[in-house]
Amino acid sequence: MLEMEKDFDSKLKIQGNSSSSNGNAGNVQRSKSFAFRAPQENYTIQDFELGKIYGVGSYSKVVRAKKKDTGTVYALKIMDKKFITKENKTAYVKLERIVLDQLDHPGIVRLYFTFQDSFSLYMALESCEGGELFDQITRKGRLSEDEARFYAAEVVDALEYIHNLGVIHRDIKPENLLLTAEGHIKIADFGSVKPMQDSQITVLPNAASDDKACTFVGTAAYVPPEVLNSSPATFGNDLWALGCTLYQMLSGTSPFKDASEWLIFQRIIARELRFPDYFSDEARDLVDRLLDLDPSRRPGAGPDGYAILKMHPFFKGVDWDNLRAQIPPKLALEPCTQSPAGDDVHDSSWSPSHIGDGSASLARQPDGAASSSEGTGHITRLASIDSFDSKWQQFLDPGESVLMISMVKKLQKLTSKKVQLILTNKPKLIYVDPSKLIVKGNIIWSDNPNDLSIQVTTPSNFKICTPKKVMSFEDAKQRAWQWKKAIEGLQNR
């Protein structure tokens, strides 16, 4: 374990200290050292009292944490070192830390300090006690246009700041738009961030700033069509996601929602967009323009910058110079909750002895699922474009569609082999050799759980059991529970 920690530290090591950096970040872009605003501390997890889980990602969890000696509450992002190293995510973690350290805007979550131990990396972030915008939409059903205008304006203000620095967020969605206790918006989760070539943000060597143009990051329902077509990232990516988010605020659902990622992607490519009758002409026009198939034509992405977007009739009456002084919409609280996130909220599954060792219970779900939202996939970050690639269509019959698809490892006694596991609405369950593009196995379907069942052993590992055979799989995207729910949901249809 000590060797792993030293190896990880050598990959993550950034020369810096706890003092603030002087001078413009752009002036030190080629520097090999970097002085962090948010210091690297020598804290341990025992210095914090852990509370409710805010969210779960592919290699991280975010939990409410109160520092015992000061009483200050943070949103503590806990990242699994072993998983990060195994999946070659070190450079991305490093980039997120560096970028967050340099962002200074009231509409962006603040990073205060970091620390680490043998198992985990920790980032102490600003705690947004109002929760996610997603929860407000869910609790209210849908937002009024006045409420949506307020939130959208604050997002636009923060995005303008980010884009002016030459940075693309790449995962704008209601789950990543957090609310302060007063109800103001803050953009969170910079795990997919992409600095552009002329960015004013300091990017150090070996940070993940030059990923391939076709790298697919983001969340299925908010991914723009140009990303699905492997075009390079642009500021227009975030503006498309803003359009999807505004639509969801006003309607209660995302514009391209469908039964599977495959079907969502097909709707996005076809720009299959329908507006409810109650959308005002101004709201309809703004969403329509933000969801333009040409990213350069989306308001905010053209040569006039954000001026065109902010002058749109939907934003009439918005005081752009004093946004944070305005009174936010009233928050709809969680049922049976006295405050947005009170100190009495505590998740007994969080014990310091469990942190980072991969054995912690992720949330108090009766079936062990990571969170109530895991089944909907709104937390999952997609890492490749495989799930949309047309090459898988050759394995489908006419009228057949993919419900679930993942690149997984098929585990055998001494070896493991990567295969593409595909579940269709036929129903059909097959696994394909991704290089030779031939079917390697057809798992005989049955609606009877005695003849076809799925057992989940960890968030990544599951077994598909038939009377004649038990097959073990490992899904690096930690979708084991989603596979179980997808198969059992089809059996119970």
UniProtKB/TrEMBL annotation:
Bias (Low complexity) ranges: 16-27
Swiss-Prot/TrEMBL GO biological process terms: intracellular signal transduction
Location in or out of the cell: Cytoplasm; Membrane
CDD domains: STKc_PDK1 (cd05581)
Compositionally biased residues, Basic and acidic residues: 1-12
One Pfam family from the record: PH_3
Entry's EC annotation: 2.7.11.1
Stretches of the chain forming a coiled coil according to its record: none
SMART domains: S_TKc
Keywords on record: ATP-binding, Cytoplasm, Kinase, Membrane, Nucleotide-binding, Phosphoprotein, Serine/threonine-protein kinase, Transferase
InterPro entries assigned to the protein according to its UniProt record, in alphabetical order: Kinase-like_dom_sf (IPR011009), PDK1-typ_PH (IPR033931), PDPK1 (IPR039046), PH-like_dom_sf (IPR011993), Prot_kinase_dom (IPR000719), Ser/Thr_kinase_AS (IPR008271), Ser_Thr_kinase_AGC (IPR050236)
Region (Disordered), start-end ranges: 1-28, 334-376
Main location: cytoplasm
SUPFAM superfamilies: PH domain-like, Protein kinase-like (PK-like)
Domain Protein kinase: residue ranges: 48-315
Family: Belongs to the protein kinase superfamily. AGC Ser/Thr protein kinase family. PDPK1 subfamily.
The protein's name: non-specific serine/threonine protein kinase
Organism of this sequence: Cajanus cajan (Pigeon pea)
Organism placement in taxonomy: Eukaryota, Viridiplantae, Streptophyta, Embryophyta, Tracheophyta
